[in-house]
Automatic annotation (TrEMBL):
This is TNFR-Cys domain-containing protein. InterPro entries: Death_3_fish, TNFR/NGFR_Cys_rich_reg, TNFRSF_decoy_receptor. The keyword Repeat applies. TNFR-Cys repeats lie at residues 66-106, 107-145. It comes from the Eukaryota. PANTHER family: TUMOR NECROSIS FACTOR RECEPTOR SUPERFAMILY MEMBER (PTHR23097), TUMOR NECROSIS FACTOR RECEPTOR SUPERFAMILY MEMBER 6B (PTHR23097:SF116). It comes from Xiphophorus maculatus (Southern platyfish). Disulfide bonds join C67-C82, C85-C98, C88-C106, C127-C145. One of its GO terms (biological process) is apoptotic process. Keywords: Apoptosis, Disulfide bond, Glycoprotein, Repeat, Secreted, Signal. It is found in: Secreted. GO terms for cellular component: extracellular region.
Length: 306
């Protein structure tokens, strides 16, 4: 039994060795007809990085020549010329340059990754507000996002921004007037220097419009209706894209009065964004309630005590 097993193993080993010898040999030669004698002939192939300038005969060996610049051969060959070096495609950069014995290697440029379904490099996904980057995108993989955990937030769309910890009002000696959410920070007030509730709401209005995605036509109508001191309506708002519209809102918020901010929920409602309008009004109501409960009552108590 042991003898049979040993014989079988020996037979397999000899077969593998024979395949390796003859297989390797066939890779290094090719068959031709001798132009002088007319007899079959085995010619040597050319090594990688070269090409066959002239075939062998009964009186001379194969003549190989180096690949010219911007061309290559990766295998033993008997080609009459080298292959042209490849060119990186759209949104790709050279990872490794072309050499005489290897083609160039490409990879997606910064900010892009290879998408197998499209067979091309596409831009990394942005994590929307309310989510942070769990894993940054690479040339091979897209961005991985994660919803901000409790007590953290993200108020921008980004391919690299992580969720940020909500600020602590008490640590700064301030009063919490609006608890932070996944898309905006906590809002604090100094009860000794109170402002109108709408003034505090200003802090999150730009983030509000980024987080609550709206149809561009409705967003244009909102921008068109924003109240201004001179009463003029900027008609060019009808042509602005999303980025320009958000920029216009930020600019308006920075100069708007408390009375104008108070009008915003109603303006949003008139464009058909009822849910967004209600959420914005709810934020404003929460701020004013907290100001009344915590700051006004504290001021009143201080007055009584004095």
């Amino acid at each position: 039994m042991n003898y049979l097993t040993l014989s079988t193993e020996l037979l397999i080993l000899l077969s593998v060795r024979s395949w390796l010898v003859h297989g390797a040999s066939s890779q290094l030669t090719y068959k031709v007809t001798d132009p002088i004698t007319g007899n079959p002939l085995q010619c040597d192939r050319c090594p990688p990085g070269t090409f066959l300038r002239a075939s062998c005969s009964s009186i001379k060996k194969s003549e190989c020549a180096p690949c010219p610049q911007d061309s290559f051969t990766e295998l033993w060959n008997y080609m009459g010329r080298c292959l042209r070096c490849g060119v990186c495609g759209r949104n790709q950069v050279v990872k490794k340059g072309c050499t005489a014995n290897s083609d160039c290697q490409c990879e997606c440029k910064e900010g892009y990754f290879y998408h197998q379904d499209y067979d091309m490099c596409v831009r990394h996904s942005e994590c929307p507000s309310g989510q942070g980057v769990l894993t940054k995108g690479t040339a091979e993989r897209d961005t991985v996002c994660s919803v901000c955990s409790e007590d953290t937030f993200s108020d921008i769309s980004s391919t690299h921004h992580n969720c940020t910890q909500h600020k602590s009002c008490s640590d700064a000696g301030l009063q919490l007037v609006l608890r932070g959410s996944s898309w905006h920070d906590s809002m604090c007030a100094n009860c000794q220097q109170l402002k109108d509730g709408a003034e505090y709401l200003k802090e999150i209005i730009p983030s509000f419009f980024i987080h609550h995605k709206m149809n561009i036509k409705r967003l244009r109508r909102i921008v068109l209706r924003l109240p201004s001191e001179d009463g003029k309506k900027p008609r060019e708002s009808l042509e602005l894209n999303f980025s320009e519209l958000h920029s216009r809102i930020c600019s308006w918020v920075s100069s708007a009065t408390a009375a104008q901010i108070q009008q915003l929920p109603a303006i949003v409602n008139k464009t058909g964004e009822t849910t967004a309008s209600e959420k914005l009004q709810h934020k404003l109501n929460s701020i004013e309630t907290h100001l009344t409960e915590h700051c006004h009552s504290k001021i009143y108590s201080n007055v009584i005590e004095s």
